[in-house]
Specification:
Elements (H helix, E strand, L loop, with lengths): L8 E4 L5 H12 L3 E4 L4 H14 L6 E2 L7 H10 L5 E4 L14 H29 L2 E6 L12 H18 L7 E8 L5 H10 L7 H12 L11 H12 L10 E4 L9
Parallel strand pairs: 1-2, 1-4, 2-3, 4-5, 5-6, 6-7
Helix pairs in contact: 1-8, 4-5
Bound molecules: NADP nicotinamide-adenine-dinucleotide phosphate.
């Protein structure tokens, strides 16, 4: 299906790996010129080359920088003052017990998972409204609506994104701009794969056997009993960014493998 995205420009934050990279690849597949972001110049350059080779009719560009840092964000705004699509994917997560989450950790999560996304949205939204076209997409988590208690510092920041998404959506009334949020469930990014390998350090087991064991023991509520593939989130994100998804306004869109047990 042609999603009608050819020649749009998209900034995907945190797109050298994992879900962000998969979203960038799926958008490039649709003819979108993607701006690749991460803190490491070599990884950004490698991702740009890979996407350029795979989708030669597009012009992927480097958007290197730590987007938690105000000056580096401003440098990015100067370099790329306009985008049609902004995917706020960048986010950090780790299992922590509540008593270990001190103010410094709260602040780090707030700045990384919320404030960076808010600042980027605040900068790019006005021109989208002026152009009467644009997409802002937040990547939250099932933890936003179903905090497990295993990472309170993370769950709070992901709930905040849902609220921000709805507030920003209310500013788009009567326009072709949309602001939405995807809530992925457990997804097999390189980072998650490393965490599983660390939890089950058995050289004789295949990764697929480790995945089955982990799912059964730790995530029995997952109805798919496997990790979601980053590409699955990427494809959904490309659709939500497309003109066919104009009626999604301020929506929380779950692709959680059945993790959340409620109807809504
Ligand atoms: N994986 C899951 O199970 C899962 C489930 C639900 C939601 N999510 C959400 O999905 C998003 C992506 O997760 P993921 O697992 O794909 O993450 P990941 O594998 O850790 O990838 C993170 C990406 O962000 C970049 N990055 C990190 N800090 C940055 C910063 N300050 N400025 C710019 N780039 C930065 C990383 O590159 P550098 O390190 O080189 O900068 C990398 O490209 C996150 O928001 C996460 O909360 C993930």
């Amino acid at each position: 299906m042609d999603m009608g995205l050819r020649n749009k420009t998209a900034l995907i934050t945190g797109s050298t790996k994992g879900i962000g990279k998969a979203i960038a690849v799926e958008l490039a597949k649709e003819g979108v010129h993607v701006l690749i972001n991460g803190r490491h110049e070599d990884e950004v350059a490698r991702t740009v080359s890979e996407i350029q080779a795979a989708f030669p009719s597009t012009s992927p560009q480097k958007a290197t920088g730590d987007l938690v840092d105000v000056e580096q964000r401003e440098a990015l705004f100067e370099k790329y003052p306009n985008v049609d699509i902004l995917v706020n994917n960048l986010g950090i997560y780790e299992i922590m017990s509540y008593e270990d989450v001190d103010d410094e950790v709260w602040e780090k999560y707030f700045r990384t998972n919320f404030l960076a996304a808010n600042s980027l949205s605040k900068f790019y939204l006005p021109n989208m409204l002026k152009n009467d076209y644009g997409r802002i997409l937040f990547i939250a988590s099932e933890e936003a609506v179903m905090p497990s208690g295993q990472m309170p510092q993370y769950a709070v920041t992901k709930s905040m994104l849902l609220s921000l998404s709805k507030s920003l959506s209310s500013l788009t009334r009567g326009t072709e701009v949309t602001v939405n949020t995807i809530l992925p469930g457990p997804t097999l990014s390189e980072n998650v794969q490393q965490i599983i390998e660390g939890l089950i350090p058995d050289d004789t087991m295949s990764f697929s056997a480790k995945e089955k064991q982990f799912m059964k023991a730790t995530l029995p509520q997952s109805e798919i009993q496997r990790f979601i593939k980053p590409m699955e989130i990427g494809r959904l994100a490309a659709f939500v960014c497309s003109p066919y998804a104009s009626a999604f306004k301020g929506s929380p869109i779950r692709m959680d493998g059945g993790m959340v047990p409620t109807i809504f």
